[in-house]
Amino acid sequence: MTAIEFNQQLISFQNPLKYFALKLTSDNEDAEDLLQETFLKALKYKDKFQEATNLKAWLYTIMKNTFINNYRRSRVIYPWYQS
Questions:
Q1: Does this model's pTM top 0.70?
Q2: Please, which contacts does 13-19 make with residues 24 or more away whose CB atoms are closer than 8 Å?
């Protein structure tokens, strides 16, 4: 898969990923940040993507793990904050 094909497929999943991000964060701005961070990680680690596998599932996994890591990080930094 060329870089252009990868980028086109990445963009084609923007709307479903945005919806998933909104479900995770319940906030439009946080969802936009999560989507952007997911795209950045996907572009940074595109050499780790195996071509014969499911790109959509790979992107959802990146997003879910990013959300979980951000949540855990926020709980360590602000342990007194109860959402």
A1: yes
A2: 13/55, 13/56, 13/59, 16/56, 17/59, 17/60, 17/63
